[in-house]
Amino acid sequence: MSKHERLRDMFHPADSSARTIRDLISGTEALLRSTASYGGSEIESARDRLQQQLEAAREQAKGWERVAWDRAKDASHAADDYVHENAWKSVAGAVLIGALAGACLMSDHRRR
Per the record, GO CC terms (predicted)? Predict the structure, then answer.
């Protein structure tokens, strides 16, 4: 699995609020379709306003998704670059964290 695929899977919309926004938009579209047979200037005006707000929300959600994706890619690249440039520091940090975690687990185990 490539780095791009792992990153995409990490931020899959099914696990985020993007899914909720998409459900809200589709529900609103269904509501607009179901009221299409009703007439009157007030209802037509309300439908038009709702349609405009829906389009604005859809565009804003796409923007949020793009920004989140770009930030995640930037963070991934920065972390990857740091680890490659500071390999020994990264290994030492991982060993230190592992040793501390092991010590905490052993300490907890002795208390029982």
Answer: plasma membrane
Owning domain of residue 68: 3-111
Reduced to 3 states (helix: H, G, I; strand: E, B; else coil), residue 1 is coil
Per-residue confidence of the chain (112 residues) as pLDDT tens digits? 566 666 666 656 555 566 777 777 777 888 777 777 777 787 778 778 888 888 888 888 888 888 888 999 999 999 888 888 888 988 999 999 999 999 988 876 666 6
What is the CA angle 50-52-54, rounded to 5? Answer: 65
H/E element, 26: helix 17-34
Measured N-to-C along each axis, helices 87-111 and 41-85 cross at an angle, to the nearest 10 degrees, of 100
| Number of domains the chain contains | 1
